[in-house]
Amino acid sequence: xxxxxxxxxxxxxxxxxxxxxxxxxxxxxxxxxxxxxxxxxxxxxxxxxxxxxxxxxxxxxxxxxxxxxxxxxxxxxxxxxxxxxxxxxxxxxxxxxxxxxxxxxxxxxxxxxxxxxxxxxxxxxxxxxxxxxxxxxxxxxxxxxxxxxxxxxxxxxxxxxxxxxxxxxxxxxxxxxxxxxxxxxxxxxxxxxxxxxxxxxxxxxxxxxxxxxxxxxxxxxxxxxxxxxxxxxxxxxxxxxxxxxxxxxxxxxxxxxxxxxxxxxxxxxxxxxxxxxxxxxxxxxxxxxxxxxxxxxxxxxxxxxxxxxxxxxxxxxxxxxxxxxxxxxxxxxxxxxxxxxxxxxxxxxxxxxxxxx
Length: 357
What we know:
By secondary structure, the protein is an alpha+beta fold. It is built from 13 helices and 12 strands. It folds into 2 domains: 2-155 and 244-356, BirA Bifunctional Protein, domain 2 (2-Layer Sandwich); 162-236, no CATH class. A hairpin with a 3-residue loop joins β3 (57-60) and β4 (64-68). α4 (123-137) crosses α11, α5 (150-158) packs antiparallel against α9 (232-242) and α10 (248-259) packs antiparallel against α11. GO terms for molecular function: glycosyltransferase activity.
């Protein structure tokens, strides 16, 4: 009985996935497939060793270190950047694999169905198109939508009155909220500089770092301790963005005010205004659309602009997505191609549909 129930559930999920797959193809997407085993070096180059904690890694005697596919977006971007049409729309479906904490109740193997758009024209209009495409896929299901913009945070970081090294460190950890906060506190003077020990000539070399590596690191820490703290008004603006949660028009008004004192924020706010206009033209009630300044910071760290999510009650995010222009730059040898897309969890879609009926 248990086996039969499991097979029945898996069949229902697959049927839901196939229906979503057909929906995205009807929206103009070309169906594509990606290998279940992906080269680990690409993902490690993009995300560092942190990805090992979330992915299943194996060694192949011919292919080298491989990962069970943790996500579709990276291989789809690689495929497109190696010779895809321009513009292009893609749809895909299949299983992804991610390690989960014990007792979390989350699946470590599940279906994703995705829709990706590569197009150099009218980015805000395309953001709106993708958002509406996913909203239509969830029609008939009680859900809430949230949007954000990682570009707001990165634009503020880029304009901070501090050293390039500090800005680079903050930019690298903007998707890791705890590390990011620690850096802000340290660079702003709210927390003391890291303790610096001295290195004696007879100190043994332990691990992979050489004495030269350690000496260079100690010199950087000493240089950091001499730097002036980031101005308080810039830190308060960053906090204001991170804590912002309001309907889209109210959020835009607050960001307009903040940008008056932060010139680097202005272009991102203008893009946000154009995006809200594009959403309204597509029939989205932006008065009821929630905006969160920190939304998207715990997803896969390739989203660098518009981000969105659709949730249903306690089920959590059914669909998520966003813009990832920088990822195409990182994976393409001939420059970047503006890109935006997202994924749906058909298993969670079924749960939400059952709860709505």
